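#struct-help
A.M.: can someone run this one for me? Single chain, 343 residues.
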Amino acid sequence: MAHLVRTAVLVGVIAATCASSVVALAAPPKPRPIARREAVAPQYEAEAEPTYYAAEPEFDPRSVDLAPRPPQLPTVPRAQLGEEILQDDLPPHESVVEEAPPIYADDPRAPGASTGDDYVDEPSSTWQGPPPGVQRRLQHHPLKTYLENRPRQMPLMADSWLNRPFGMSYFVGGMFLDDPIQNVVGGDVGLTYGGRLSWDLGPHWGIETRLAGADVGVRDLVTGTDLRHAKIFYWDVNWLWYWTGDTRWRPYALVGSGLNDINFYSTVQRYHNTLVTLPFGVGMKYRHSTRLALRFELLDNYTFSSGQVSDMHNITLTAGMEIRIGGGRSRSYWPWNPGRNWW
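D.P.: on it. Structure tokens below:
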């Protein structure tokens, strides 16, 4: 019986404990009291009273010694210096410039005085240049402006004319023959043809030889009848100057000398002469590829007189093709020009 009572009491205590725990968990929590802050009155710092200073006097630079004065050396009598010569005792340097003597009014050297040998000063023979107006117009001349600002060619980058300095070319064109005999036999227009061998010595200089012929008509100036065609053969050696250098379009000037063999007939007799010729003119080369170039030329083949044949200006206008050779193994610019050729 006592055992059951203790068990019942223990169970009741446990049940009461569990019930109170459940009730405590199920009940809402009580709000915490929030502490209120007391209002604090703002505190401001008192403004400082302004401080007034007395005005400083203006600075007077004359009242201050900017550089220290040198010390005053005691005076030493000359008797104590011995017989040494001071710099102050040396005589003053004499002036090198001599004073000019005065010029009086009756002196012939006076300005405006007549010496009896009056002459008029001639203007200087030295050319001082054009007048200012002409010089100003020349500075702004359209031709001068064009020559200074003309478009210039770019030099070749991947190849050069000098890589293959030798050239073989042929040409064909027309010849305007001058009168072989003045007032007797007149020249006409005919065909000229030939070939050249050239060698470029540098970007601006070259040399070549030319062998060519021409078949030109002639006429009798007295009767106006046509005569048999004149046969002309000429050979010369020429210097070429390329003033633009190593460019794709390559203009040049040409001058040289050679021989001219002319054979023609008049109404009376036959003329066969070998004359000295002096060709000069201009031309243009265009580099089409590494081995091929186009060439155009305008020359005046001046021929000196001999016997009854007169001086002649035989004008030739020709066009042709030039094959570039030589120079050893061709340059290889991989991968733009991977050449492996020997010629």
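A.M.: thanks! The chain is about 10% helix and 35% strand.
D.P.: also worth noting: Residues 2-26 form the longest helix (25 residues).
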